[in-house]
Amino acid sequence: MIRFEHVTKRYADGTTAVDDLSFEVAEGELVTLVGPSGCGKTTTMKMVNRLIEPTDGRIFLDGDDISAIDPVQLRRRIGYVIQQVGLFPHKTVLENTATVPHLLGWKRGKGRERAAELLDLVGLDPSVYGDRYPEQLSGGQRQRVGVARALAADPPVLLMDEPFGAVDPVVRERLQNEFLRLQARVRKTVLFVTHDIEEAVRLGDRIAVYGQGRIEQFDPPATVLGAPATPYVADFVGADRGLKRLSVTPVEESDLDRPPVVHLDDPLAKATERLRAQGARWAVVLDGEDQLHGWIPAQDASPAKTGGTVREHARRMEAWLPLGAPLKQAFATMLQHDAGWIAVVDRESNGRFLGVLTPARLHEALRRSIDADAQDVPRAGVAVETVASVAGP
User: Fold this and answer.
1) Number of C-beta neighbours around residue 251 at 10 A
2) How many angstroms separate the CA atoms of 365 and 359, rounded?
3) What are residue 55's phi and psi, to 5 degrees?
4) How far apart, in whole angstroms, are the C-alpha atoms of residue 159 and residue 273?
5) Cross-strand pairs, 219
6) Do residues 179 and 199 make contact, with C-beta atoms less than 8 angstroms apart?
7) What is the dihedral of CA 252, 256, 261, 264, to 10 degrees?
8) Residue 319 · residue 337 · CB < 8 Å
9) pLDDT for 266-317, tens place per residue?
10) Which domains, from first to last, does the chain contain?
C-alpha cells in the first residue's frame, strides 16, 4: 500500500533529515515509527501526504507515484491525526467530523450520517456529543473526534503523528485500547509516529526503529525486543526489553499445565480420588458445560470429608484470562490476585477451560518465544532447559 524507494530529504542548510529510506507497508498493516526527537520519523510521515517533498527517491501509494498526484487530492485520500488534534473551535463535534465529506462534495445529510456513525464507532454517542464544541470536551474526547474525522471519508491510509502524546497516562492507555479495537474492525493501513517504545510495541504490527535519518531495524515487535539488530536498537529499547516483550507474547495452549479437573456435581469422594491419584494439592472445578467455576484445595477434599458434592466445597476462581492474552496481562493478574497460577479459557468456545498458567510456565513461554524468533520456528516446537529438566525425575 505504501512504498518508499531510496527516499532522501535534504534541506538547504545541508541537514539530511531522511537518508536513502526504503521500506514497504502492506495493506491493512499498522507500522509504528519510533525514535528520538529529530531522527526523521515525522518527516517520513509528512512526505507521504506531501506536506514535505522529498529531495530524492519516490513514494508510492497503492501503486501510484504520489509525485504525479495533485497534493490536495492526495490528502483527501489520506486520514491525518496529529497530537494537537486541530479541531475547528467554531464548529460542533458533528460538523468537525463531517469536514472531509463536505470538502469532497457529499450531500449534507450523508456527511452528517457518516459523522454520527464514526462518532459512535469511537465511543462518543452522537446524540450526546454531536452538538458540543471542542472546548466542551476532555483531551481524550477531542482525540477520539480527531480519529473519527480522519476516518470520515473512509481513506485507505491513516497517518498518525503522536496522536496520544498530549494526554495523561491513564487516558493514553484507554485511547490505545480503543484504537486497537477500532483498527481490528476497519483495518486501515497506518503509519503511526511515536517516541515511546512501549506504545510502538503495543500498537505496531511492525516497528521501524529510527537512528539518525535511517531505519536501524524494521521488524515485528517481538523480534525488535528479542533480537535487536544493532547495539543502537538494543540501547533504545532498553535493558528491560524482556519485560516489554511480555506485552507482545500471547498465551498459547502449549504453555499450559493440565491440573486435575472435577465438576460441581461430582461426589466429593471422586475429587479426593483424583487429587490423590495425581498427587495434587488442588483441582479445577468446572460446571456442567466445562466452563470455569473455581477450584477446590486438597484439604477440602480430604478422606474425612467424603460426603456431599464438590459444589459444597468449591471456591470461586477470580484469577483467569482468555487464551491469546499477552503474558504481561497474565503476570499482572497473578500479582493482582496473589495467585500461584491462573486459569486460561477459550473465549471462542464459550469459555471452555483449557489449563492453567504458572509462574514457571510463564517464564518458559517467554524464553520459547525469544528462541523461536531466533531460530525462525514455531514457538510450540522450541524446547527450553529448566531446573526440572536438568535435575531429572
Assistant:
1) 24
2) 10
3) -80, -40
4) 61
5) 207
6) no
7) -50
8) yes
9) 888 888 888 888 888 888 999 888 889 989 888 776 656 556 888 888 888 8
10) 2-247 (3.40.50.300), 253-375 (3.10.580.10)
pLDDT tens figures, 55-107: 999 999 999 999 999 999 898 889 888 877 788 889 999 998 988 888 878 88
Identity of the amino acid at 106: W
- Strands 30-34, 189-194: parallel, antiparallel or unpaired by DSSP? parallel
DSSP-assigned letters across all residues of 371-393:
HHHHHTS-GGG-----HHHHH--
In terms of Cα–Cα distance, which of 201, 168, 164 is closest to 179? 164
Cβ contacts of residue 295 below 8 Å, gap of 6+?
A: 282, 283, 284, 285, 314, 315, 317
What lies within 8 Å, CB to CB, of 237 at 6+ separation is 197, 209, 224, 225, 228, 244
Q: State how far the alpha carbon of 39 is from the alpha carbons of 33, 36, 218, 279, 288, in Å.
A: 10, 6, 15, 58, 58
The x, y and z cell numbers of residue 353, run together, are 477451560
DSSP 193: E
